[in-house]
Amino acid sequence: MFGLDAVELARAQFAFTVTFHIIFPAFSIGLASYLAVLEALWLWTGRDVYLNVFNYWLKIFAIAFGMGVVSGIVMSYQFGTNWSVYSDKVGPVIGPLMAYEVLTAFFLEAGFLGVMLFGLKRVGPKLHFLATLMVAIGTLISAFWILSANSWMQTPAGYAVNAEGQFVSVDWLKVIFNPSFPYRLVHMVLAAYLTTSLVVGAVGAWHLLRNPHLPGPRVMFSMAMWMAALVAPLQILAGDQHGLNTLEHQPVKIMAMEGHFESHKDGAPLYLFGWPDQAEGKLKWALGIPKFGSLILKHQIDAPMAGLDTIPRKDWPPVPITFWSFRIMVGLGMLMLALGLFSLWERWRGRLYINRGLHRFAIAMGPAGFIAVMAGWITTETGRQPFTVYGLLRTADSVSPLAAPAVGASLLAFIIVYFIIFAAGVLYILRLMAEPPHAGEPGPSSAQPVRTAGITPAAGVVQGAVGS
């Protein structure tokens, strides 16, 4: 298929499915917390506008959550179909971490999700808020375990290799809290909050352009811009700390991200743009700031930086993809910071709800969080290549013994089905977003449940007794 072998097709399939999947957890993690804040504000202030906005986003959350669950299940099957050797080698470590995610996060979410969606008029406001809070906590716990498992693949710790060549845990605390895990958890959760704030802000701005006096969109836009203004600087700081951690534990990934094919003895430049030529081992048409790379990565302007020329070529990651995806992520992060600062300026001037330029900027930034999250995951995963477990297990040694046509056929099927099903779901979400929240906004619990069995025998007995 297109001249690709089974390994490349298996990688392409996993990349395709994980790229689709990551946008839904990134949205649902932030949106669950946003819903908890909205309901808390409603209980605290008694203002109906918070309940209206809560019900408005609750319907969207239900759809996004469902699509995230479905797309996540598909990925887990690939461990057995396309990556059976990987599953055998790392199963004793990764398997329990995935099981903990199901036993804690997924059960917590599933147990309270029904109450959250349909129980406001049945269990009362306080118990319903508890359910909303539990769902929000469940999404964060889910992120905890998934990122722990993925971080272990990036920076393995607390393991041993048994006689069968399998990785086994010798210290679960070191496995779970591996060196890159805290940085990646903070970076991902902040990314989820930023992603949600940009979507909420874009929807609020869309309706404010039509009518700047609508109370629901004003609340949405104000809260979203506060989140962007506060979290964007924190995300940049967290990204810097994550970069320093990556330099310590995965220096080759940093070399690819920065386009450092050559070593620099007295300070490395910060390349803004260029064309990475992996075959020739050089960055063509490079535009950079002298010695600024060493200042950012080592906080010393003349600090030496090793390049890919010190690494065997067989251990190089795909430099062009890693280089450009990293710049997309950083560039969008700078735009998020600009949006937050712009909103603060207009808030101070009293023009937050009437500045149409700010509203158009917010609408344009609506999908930026999703793109930045995908670019960040591409940077992380391609920068780890050619290993599945960094430095220990190669990708080529992790794949199932399948022929390329078999993997290519399943990849083609995934592409067709995903674009049909998830396009329908996204279009439905956009239709919901096209209308502003109204006074008395109905939530998913507005309709009474349907009796699928029709008239129950007990109801028939009661009616017969009344008739007689």
TrEMBL record:
InterPro entries: Cyt-d_ubiquinol_oxidase_su_1 (IPR002585)
GO molecular function: electron transfer activity; heme binding; metal ion binding; oxidoreductase activity, acting on diphenols and related substances as donors, oxygen as acceptor
Keywords annotated in UniProt: Cell membrane, Electron transport, Heme, Iron, Membrane, Metal-binding, Transmembrane, Transmembrane helix, Transport
GO CC terms, sorted: cytochrome complex; plasma membrane
Keyword match Transcription regulation: no
Keyword presence, Ribonucleoprotein: no
Superkingdom of origin: Bacteria
Biological process terms in GO annotation: aerobic electron transport chain
UniProt subcellular location: Cell inner membrane; Cell membrane
Residue ranges crossing the lipid bilayer per the database entry: 20-44, 56-77, 97-120, 127-147, 185-209, 221-238, 324-345, 357-378, 402-430
Main location: membrane
Topology with respect to the bilayer: Multi-pass membrane protein
Protein family: Belongs to the cytochrome ubiquinol oxidase subunit 1 family.
Name of the featured protein: Cytochrome bd ubiquinol oxidase, subunit I, CydA, QxtA
Organism: Bradyrhizobium oligotrophicum S58
Taxonomic classification: Bacteria, Pseudomonadati, Pseudomonadota, Alphaproteobacteria, Hyphomicrobiales
